[in-house]
Each structure stands twice: as structure tokens, then as C-alpha cells.
Amino acid sequence: MKTKAKKGLVLAYILAGVLFLSGALGTLLLLMPHKMNIVQVLRDDQILYTVYINAEDERFIRIDYGDSYNLLEIKDGKIRVSEAGCPDNTCVKMSWLSSSAPIVCLPNHLVIKFASDYDGIDAVVG
Amino acid sequence: MNKKIRRMTELALLTAIALIIFVVELQIPNLSPVAGVKLGLANIITVYAVYRCKWSEAALMLLARVLLGSFFSSNPSALLYSLSGGTFCLLGMLPLKKIIPINRLWLCSVFGAVLHNLGQLTAASLIMKTAAVWFYLPPLVLSGCIAGALTGLAAQLVIKRTEKIK
Question: Mind listing the pLDDT tens digit for each residue in A57-70?
Fold first, then answer.
């Protein structure tokens, strides 16, 4: 094999290794348990609800989207999707929000995540 | 004429195999809570096609499989995600073919799988108009590396066994 192609192959190996390691590291960081006080519920980048989850008692929020829906449950300072009308129910399987990884319902365009400092919260509803 | 018909039949057969693998894989429940992590077994055929067929043939097979797959699955809106993922994957693997030899095909498949997930994330972030989906990048890159390596190995074995048929 010509040297240029061989160099390319070595680079490819290195890049693959870097991808693998950064993927592993990133995943560990992402899934580390981590809670904050404020949860945002968004659809298509619009904030539907901002919730101070430690200040809430048990509460359900039903969000409709066309034919489908998501039923959010807030309890003991935690939030999850307890029921949903979407076909795969991945959002329900994700259970309680406990890390930086947001709960996403792709078919219903719904995102539930802890609010971070960059989110510039200036208005709170609910 | 004979050659053309034979070629078309071979490609149709490959497409059908990829389609069946795709449909069967849909029935396997998601292992992880992370959205979009899947085995991507149908890519075995795509990677095989990148190395054993012309790029135009590989592209057409992918397009046919993605279109038919969206009809057969109960989720036609997933079509955009599949198309986007498949395009990224193919556009990455075809040039990589020049520096990754056929006996290291699994490495090409790793990049293909990671690009596939990147494509789906891009589609998701555009459709949902949020950047929040990019939180899923690390687990998708990781699962892409692993799944890509495994499907690539499978494709390598297939190529080894079918070398004599060509």
C-alpha cells in the first residue's frame, strides 16, 4: 500500500479510537446523577412549563399534541413521563429525570430537562 | 442483456435482505433508555455494497431500502431520520473506502455508524428546532462505534465467504 494511504489508515484508526473514548467519557458524564431545582418542559424550543420541582407536591401535567399526549408526573422532587400516546414510549422508559440527559419524546416534539444557567430564566409559570 | 439482468437481480436480492433485516430489527425492543440506540444490522448490507458494488448501486439500494422500510414499519415519519442518517453514512463511507482496505472494513463501518447517528441527530435537532437533542451525542457516538465495529465484522465475514461467487 502506498505511504499516503497508509498514513490515512493510521489516522483513521486514531480517529476511531478518539471517537470511542470521547463517546465513553461523554456518556459517563452525561449519565452521572445530577439534579437541579428547575425543570423545563419544551416543545419545538418553546418553553411550555418551568417547574420548581422541590416546591411541588404530587402533581400531574397532561400535554396534548395532535392525536397524542404525554402525561408528566411530579413527585418527591422528581419528574417523569408516566404515560404517553407515542408508539415507542421511549420517553416513559426513561423514567425519572436524574441527570443531564433530557427526556425526549421525538414524535411529540417534547423535551424535559433540568434548566442550566445558560437558559436565562426570567419568567416562571406554574 | 444477460449481464444487466443478472446484476439487477443481485442488487434486488441484496436490497430485500437489507429490508428484512431492518424490519426484523424493529421488533427487537430498545436495550437502553437512550433514544435511537440500535444495532443497525441492515447496515451490514450497506457496508458490503460500498466495497463490492459501484457507489451508484450502493446509493440506490440504500434509498430503496429506506423507502420500503418506512412503508413496512408502522412509523412513516421516521423516514426523514433514516434518510438523513443513511446519507451521512454513505457520504462518509464511500471516500473512506480509498484509505481503508477491504480486510479492515470494520473500521469503515464504525465511521458509517457514527455518521448515521450524527445524521439522525441533525434531523432531530432541525425537526424539533432544539439543541437539546445534542445531549444524546456521547451515547450515540459510543453505540455507533460498537455497533459499527460489529456489523462491519459481520460484513467482512460475508465478503470473505462470497469472494468465490463473483
Answer: 888 888 888 888 99
Closest residue to A30, CB basis, from B96, B133, B135: B135
Provide ipTM, 2 decimals. 0.84
Disruptive mutation site among A13, A68, A81, A104 for chain B (greatest number of B CBs within 10 Å): A104
Q: What angle do CA A28, A31, A36 make, to 5 degrees?
A: 130
For chain A, the structural domain boundaries read 1-31, 38-119
Residues from chain A contacting residue B100 (CB–CB below 8 Å): 9, 12
Instruction: Provide the edge-to-edge strand list for the sheet that holds A59-65.
Output: A59-65, A68-75, A78-84
The reported pTM is 0.84
Contact B55, B96 (CB under 8 A): no
- In CATH, what number is assigned to the domain containing residue B13? 1.10.1760.20
Q: Which residue has the cell 480517529?
A: A15
Asked if A22 and A31 count as a contact pair (C-beta separation under 8 A), the reply is no
